[in-house]
Design brief:
By secondary structure, the chain is mainly beta. It has five helices and 38 strands. The protein folds into two domains: about 90 residues, Immunoglobulin-like, CATH 2.60.40.4130; about 600 residues, Maltoporin, Chain A, CATH 2.40.170.20. It starts with a helix and ends in an 11-residue tail after the last strand.
């Protein structure tokens, strides 16, 4: 009996010796206990859950060095590697998960249209359902704060900058000629169909060092990575027709979209103020091929379009007007790859090529311009952990521009070649889910100027509450003068701006409020001594200027059933001393006040979506030569109310109507003055108005898809 007792005692003692007790306490960064955290030895079933005081204890038979894992929702997991004999009375501090849904976002000066984004001021659907946009992504973006309404142009004018100061990228690669040509006093459109894109980022300032050669803003368009199904889209419109198709295989897919536009039949019904000889017509085609690879995605994007028109334009100095004709062709190729290299490294690379040819005729003068441009880019990114990310890369821009001017007395060819070599680096530092910092630098070397420009940039974001945050951004930005200047003169400098941005954003349950204040300082702006930039102008880069303002944005899609609306307002104060200005003044494209109201309402009983878009801009500056005061007078304010209606004939057939400026506001773009005085010694003028006060659009859109439920309301 004594022997048995001895054996039992030795057995129990052996078991107790074989087991080790692991204990400790789990706390947060404020030293508050964390209740419910999981604590376990990696690769075993040994572990425990912390109590209300954050304490845990458990036993294990594991020996020597082991890995203790501690995890809890909304906190970063932590691993401790040491001998189990030392894992007792541990004090473990967990850091908040900086990648949680409510983490701070660096977004000063940036609007996103992306269904996968944490915060989207716009959705991809908005690009083509906004009444005033007419299916053009630029038109939809003009309803956001920071943009000025220049009705006769149609391009993006951002925060006091002209349209040339905004650059557009597809899948991170530069687009050199993003707009279709148009007659004077008629708005242009973006070349590329929104049907092939699923994400848009529009930055009105303070953007990443990855993007250069843009003084004011960048627009990033991302093509669809993977279509959901095979389908065919057919569109018959009052101005033309469209056809699209998507084919999908196991690891690849192909999408294309073609369209033909001819304003001739429309103008027979709805005449405008132009005297057309050949109404505007265009043919466009785009395709995207996607190939999934083992560690990434390869895309080929190609687009081609051609357009032409001829008309007689009114001119106060010519009784018979001026004959103006244009024939344009444009080809764009973009190849991009994004993939994983391993060890938390990713690579993004791509190349684009643009061929653009313009044949312009003005009376007896002919101007033929040809541009060949390319962009090559390589970017590497390393994710060291959730709190530190580093990216860097290099890129090359190549431009060869030639132009020939020919009339009865002159035949001259001129142009320029330019290579820009750039490098950039940027680091994301996430201190907590409430505080983040982005710092970067960019350097651009221009062969035409033989100089290097270095541009530091930084952004800081601080989350003040669960739904609100402040952001700060600063940066220097450089851009070469455009081809209208460089084709005549290359002995210049790169244009420069400095951005200062303060942003507040509040997001809660389908509601977004943004308020932003900014300041931009310009330097090295182009000056010349003639009325327009021409071959005999004396050019220099002594110009300067500023732009500052306040912007507000509110969107709500939850408070009222089936209603989605947003309101944006911008105040802009800007002056420039550039071009042929004798002193600093507000440019004629800049408006002090801009207001947009957009609303959409789904009516179940009508199977319809109706929408409205109202735009207001204060009067634009113009120069009255009779007063000899530079840009001292203002046009009357701009007003426009547009309506649209999408009606589902059935699940896959849609009838679509829209009217721009339905109330017929007689807007004024400016004035043209005569070259000679009348008998009173005054220069007479003519009012420059839009070619038409209204634009009517009717379309029938039919989708043929596998699920027989998809339709183009997502694209209209």
């Amino acid at each position: 009996m004594n022997k048995l007792i001895t054996i039992l005692i030795l057995f129990i003692f052996g078991i107790s010796n074989a087991q080790t007790t692991i204990s400790g306490k789990v706390i947060d960064h404020r030293s508050e206990p964390i209740n419910g955290a999981n604590v376990y030895l990696e690769g075993t079933y040994d572990g425990a859950t912390t109590d209300e005081e954050g304490n845990f204890t458990f036993t294990t038979e594991e020996k020597e060095t082991q890995t203790l894992v501690i995890s809890f929702l909304s906190f970063e997991s932590k691993s401790i590697v040491k001998n189990v004999s030392e894992m007792h009375q541990l004090i473990i501090k967990l850091r908040e998960d900086v990648e949680s849904l409510d983490a701070v976002i660096l977004n000063a000066g940036t609007f996103e249209a992306n269904d996968n984004s944490k915060v989207s001021a716009l959705k991809p659907l908005d690009v083509v359902t906004t009444a005033s946009a007419l299916g053009d992504f630029v038109g939809a973006l003009q309803t956001l704060p920071g943009t000025s309404n220049v009705a006769e142009d149609g391009r993006l004018f951002v925060r006091g900058g002209n349209a040339d100061e905004t650059q557009i990228f597809i899948d991170g690669i530069r687009v050199f000629t993003p707009y279709t040509p148009s007659p004077n006093n008629s708005p242009t459109r973006g070349r590329y169909s929104p049907f092939l894109f699923d994400g848009i980022t529009f930055s009105t300032g303070g953007y990443s060092s990855e993007y250069g050669q843009a003084l004011s803003s960048v627009l990033l368009l991302n093509t669809i990575d993977e279509p959901t199904q095979e389908k065919t889209d057919i569109g018959i419109m009052s101005v033309g027709a469209t056809l699209g198709n998507t084919q999908k295989w196991e690891k690849s897919s192909l999408s294309f979209n073609v369209s033909y536009i001819n304003l001739g039949p429309y103008l027979e019904v709805f005449k405008d103020r132009n005297e057309w000889k050949t109404p505007y017509s265009s043919a466009q085609g785009e395709t995207v091929f996607r190939q999934k690879l083992d560690n990434g995605m390869l895309k080929f994007y190609a687009a081609f379009d051609t357009s032409k028109f001829e008309l007689n334009q009114d001119d106060i100095n010519y009784d018979d007007g001026i004959d103006f004709k244009l024939n344009n062709s444009n080809f764009y190729l973009n190849t991009s790859y994004k993939g994983v290299l391993g060890a938390n490294w990713t690579m993004t690379t791509g190349v684009s090529y643009t061929y653009a040819k313009n044949k312009l005729g003005i009376e007896t003068s002919n101007i033929d311009g040809t541009e060949n441009s390319a962009h090559v880019k390589l970017k590497l990114k390393k994710r060291f952990n959730s709190r530190f990310k580093l990216s860097f890369g290099t890129e090359q821009f190549v431009t060869d521009y030639k132009e020939n001017f020919k009339d009865d007395s002159l035949d001259e060819t001129y142009g320029y070649d330019n290579n820009i070599t750039a490098g950039f680096a940027e680091a994301d530092l996430i201190f907590s889910k409430d505080l983040a910092l982005k710092v970067g630098v960019r350097a651009d070397y221009s062969s035409v100027f033989k100089s290097t420009e270095v541009a530091p940039r930084a952004a800081l974001a601080y989350k003040t509450s669960k739904n609100g945050q402040f952001s700060l951004a600063y940066g220097n930005f450089f851009q070469n003068p455009n081809s209208n200047v460089l084709k005549f003169e290359q002995n210049l400098k790169a244009l420069k701006t400095s951005h200062y941005i303060l942003n507040y954003q509040y997001v809660n349950n389908g509601k977004i409020f943004r308020a932003e204040a900014y300041r931009k300082d310009y330097d090295n702006l182009i000056k010349y001594d003639t009325d327009f930039a021409q071959f005999d102008s004396a050019f220099n880069t002594s110009g300067d200027g500023y732009a500052q303002g306040l912007e507000f944005f509110w969107r709500d899609n939850t408070s009222i059933k089936n209603v989605d609306y947003w309101v944006s307002y911008s105040y802009l104060d800007t002056e420039r001393n550039y071009q042929n200005f004798e002193t600093a003044a507000q440019p004629n494209y800049a408006t002090n006040h801009n207001l947009s109201v957009v609303g959409k309402y789904w009516i179940d009983s009508w199977k319809s979506q109706v929408g409205l878009s109202y735009g207001f801009s204060s009067g634009r500056p113009y120069t009255n030569p009779n007063t000899n005061q530079l840009l001292s007078e203002r046009t009357k304010p701009y007003n426009s109310l547009s309506l649209n209606w999408a009606y589902l004939l059935d699940q896959q057939k849609i009838l679509y109507f829209s009217v721009n400026n339905v109330l017929g506001f007689r807007n004024i773009n400016g004035y043209q003055y005569s070259n000679t005085t009348d008998f009173n010694g005054q220069l007479n003028r003519r009012t420059i108005t839009p070619a038409a006060d209204h634009f009517f659009f009717v379309g029938f859109f039919w989708t043929i898809s596998e699920d027989k439920t998809d339709n183009q309301l997502d694209n209209l």
